[in-house]
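User: hey, got a sec? need Response regulator folded
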Amino acid sequence: MISLKSLNVLLADDNQNMRAIASAVLHSADIRNVYEAAEGATAFDLLRRHPIDLAIVDFNMFPLDGVEFTRLVRTSPDSPNPFLPIIMMTGHSERSRVYEARDAGVTEFIVKPITAKAVLDRLNAVIMRPRPFIRSRDYVGPCRRRRDAPDYAGPFRRSSELGRSNAA
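Assistant: Yep! Here you go:
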């Protein structure tokens, strides 16, 4: 196992008790530097002032929530690190929320109530198995494809191509 002592983590959640729990989990993993914020704008300011390696943010915060924070990190001209791994945590695991977070550029997702295992699994994923970063007209963030399968080698790449034929 790698040492996490030198990792700088930004933890943003509007619930102080949740920050205390998440911070205790991070400290138990030997992470010494945890910067805390109660909402996204403060978190973004901390990100600009400190060398943050990883952010863990809550979905629901006011006035700037975790999705808006992620979009700022990914696309703002004054973002110090658009490639920052961002783990989203939320008590709302509906598919639409997961997709909204994913499409904003979130790297990983944790459902509350969090467990130490879930947090450590997500830390391991962003550190040991980072996904390639994508920058397109409509999206900035880690590759959203999670399959380890090899690229499709058949005659049709997209479902929209099913009506086309390879015959000349």
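Quick note: The helical segments are 16-28, 40-49, 66-75, 95-104, 116-128. Let me know if you need anything else on Response regulator.
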